Amino acid sequence: MSENTVDPQQYIINDEPYYESVSNEIELYEAAYNARMPMMLKGPTGCGKSRFVEYMAYRLKRPLITVACNEDMTASDLVGRFLLDSDGTKWQDGPLTTAARIGAMCYLDEVVEARQDTTVVIHPLTDHRRTLPLDKKGELIEAHEDFQLVISYNPGYQSLMKDLKQSTKQRFGALDFDYPAEEIEVQIVAKESGVDKATAEKLVQISHRARNLKGHGLDEGISTRLLVYAGQLISKGVEPVAACSMTMVTPLTDDPDMRDTLNAAVQTFFG
Fold first, then answer.
1. Do the Cβ atoms of 225 and 193 come closer than 8 Å?
2. In whole angstroms, how far apart are CA 250 and each of 82, 125, 127, 208, 214?
3. CA of residue 232 relative to chain centroid, distance
4. Pick from 145, 176, 207: which residue ends a domain?
């Protein structure tokens, strides 16, 4: 057993996250959870993957432990390490180990950012074994029956240096995510930001123009998240052109010509 007593209730989401279903993803995910199938969520930045995981954790009444993956993350950051204290050393569980012990959903966000030698530690948890070896501690954890592993990544960022191994990919069921259909995205922007429907429609129209430029000067289109940011500023009284420039143009590109193109789209609707 771990020396650290963890209260699962601290990871419970008490307030229902706002999520608009775009297809049958809720039903498919529930079926996957009932089978305790590890899940992979694939889609562009800011399209709702993390919100979906939060919503499903709330709907399933399961604790949720989220890890924002990065290239400096080591296996010890996931599974745990020995720490020095006044009595010598003590073992501190990492987030993956904690989730496996308490039966939480463990969400590894943007897992492709982590080094491949780090992500292999999840392999024993994603097949029939459902175990997690703590080599440094000499302990083998059998995952709680309610434990589920969820990962997400942006396929647009794949490269030879940053991609998941096939041996990792083929351990997961997968759901594809994309930016919502126009009508649904308008509802999301209006609900999340507090702007009226007409303003939300203009923001969504601007995003569609920008998304058409993906691969033609832009690495990524304007995300739903950025639309919500713009709407939040507008609802706080910021002039729409300035709000759009701050949230939908400047973060997206440093190229002057591309900025002019995006600003022209903003002027078309708010000028």
1. no
2. 43, 41, 44, 17, 16
3. 21
4. 176
